[in-house]
Amino acid sequence: MSDLKAVPKAIAGPSNFLDERLGGANALKRNLRKVFPDHWSFLLGEIALYSFIILLLTGTFLTFWFKPSMMEVAYDGSYAPLKGVMMSEAYASALDISFDVRGGLLMRQMHHWAALLFVAGMMVHALRVFFTGAYRKPREINWIIGVLLLTLALAEGLTGYSLPDDLLSGAGLRITEGVAISLPLVGTYITFFLFGGEYPGEAVISRFYSLHILLIPGIILALVTAHMVLMWVQKHTQMPGKGRGNQNVVGAPFYPAFMAKAGAYFLFTLGVISGLATFTQINPIWLFGPYTPADVSAGSQPDFYMGFLEGALRIMPAWEINLFGTSHAGTLPLSVIIPALVPMGIIMTGLALYPFLERWVTGDNREHHVADRPRNNPHRTSIGMAAITFYGVLWLLGANDEIAANFHVSLNHTTYAGRVLIFVGPALAYLITYRICLGLQRSDQAIISHGVESGVIKRLPHGEFIEVHTPPSEDIEAHMRGKEPVPMLPVDEDSSGIPPKGMRGPVGKLRGRMSKAYGGEKIPIDDGHGHEHEDEHAAIGSGGDERSITH
């Protein structure tokens, strides 16, 4: 038996060697037993992490053959329709990767699909954190890191999307140039820095390449590391349930349970991306041809994560401000500046400031390690759904030409509808979501008070049919009873009619009204141990005329 428990020499020797010099055995042992909660939604962030790893691996492969140069060459590769066509070295090398490098097209498509999944994974993960309130103290810094990561991912996608120098990516690059040059004061400097002169210049591909493979990935890698370290130190949030609180974590240890789960999930993510790259074509650059500033392809669309900026540009009226008459030096093209800055500013700035704004409104300075159910904070959930609707309308209108062509409606009508929906849609989403949250809270209250439907129909002595309710299981009841009232500031005046400190003055009064509306208990959960027909049930249980039907 002692031989079975002995550590193999091949493991014990190197382990002792490292421990005697680094002294990490106790810390490693302690961290390997760190407990992680097992709720499925906590794995959404893993999708982004694993997609980023796949991006690094496939991107490294592509750098061996890609040439970030705008020097003109005559194509002489395997794709016959483009033979002899003049194009940039960047586009020619992208074609060579697709047709002449073994496994090149698979790697290109894996890289592109992984990029889409990376951004989508971060978006879904951010929504999970927002709707469950997992950004609250002590996790505000980690939340801001996540917002920075999402912003950098959009910039990384833009620079990578432009590198092949095909007609489709060139159209996106032209929009980027238009947005940059429209910025007051600094627009021309930014444009000349990126393009190395007048558009299209000769340096934009090489400069985007440096940003795409060095600067932005390096920052993302550093922020991901900081994000993971903070999560590890602060411990993971958990959903409310039996035996769960702010002082403990209920789940499985990192080793072996979570490590096995994470390994399997990485392989699953890799398999999905590989399957998409194998069977679903994406970004066929050979069909678009090389980019020339004089050509524009019809029906061109950016990747989904840039769709909301495209939609903002399409529905924005042609407004501009001329500060000095008709002089171009004093022209502010609002039709470009507003779509480029306002939607991104609303979404990203709102996300970054929300933890602090919520704490200012509620006065809640406690640490939170148990996540909220979205229904239990209806205003937060409604704000989130309004933001999603705002984003979704812009994203949908980024394809207004395709919508008009395929559904045979006027392009102008889709544009006008978008201008209305961008304001009406979020307001409706807020109101509808708020009512749904209150309805779900009432449903929880009914289950706690009266139990759950058992499927058993009983006839009472006086002829009435009722369905027997049974108490919910302990886990479900504990999950529902994990609800806490949304904190709110003391806003009521004291006996002398003086408002509390901090609630005086215009700002204080506004804060008090906001706190009263945002916080408090909307639908309290009753203990309700009795049922409506408890006396009748007791009579049935003691004997008497009864008939039961189960379904």
Automatic annotation (TrEMBL):
Metal-binding in keyword set: yes
Keyword tRNA processing part of the UniProt annotation: no
Cofactor: heme
GO cellular component: plasma membrane
Coiled coil regions in record: none
Superkingdom of source: Bacteria
Annotated GO biological process: respiratory electron transport chain
Leader sequence residues: none
Name of a matching Pfam family: Cytochrom_B_N_2
Record domain Cytochrome b/b6 N-terminal region profile: where: 14-240
Location in the cell: Cell membrane
Renumbered residue ranges of the record's region Disordered: 488-509, 524-551
Catalysed transformations (reactions): a quinol + 2 Fe(III)-[cytochrome c](out) = a quinone + 2 Fe(II)-[cytochrome c](out) + 2 H(+)(out)
Transmembrane regions listed in the UniProt entry: 47-66, 112-131, 143-163, 175-196, 208-233, 254-279, 336-357, 417-437
UniProt xrefs under InterPro entries: Cyt_b/b6_N (IPR005797), Cytb/b6-like_sf (IPR027387), Di-haem_cyt_TM (IPR016174)
Alphabetized UniProt keyword annotations: Cell membrane, Electron transport, Heme, Iron, Membrane, Metal-binding, Respiratory chain, Translocase, Transmembrane, Transmembrane helix, Transport
Protein name: Cytochrome bc1 complex cytochrome b subunit
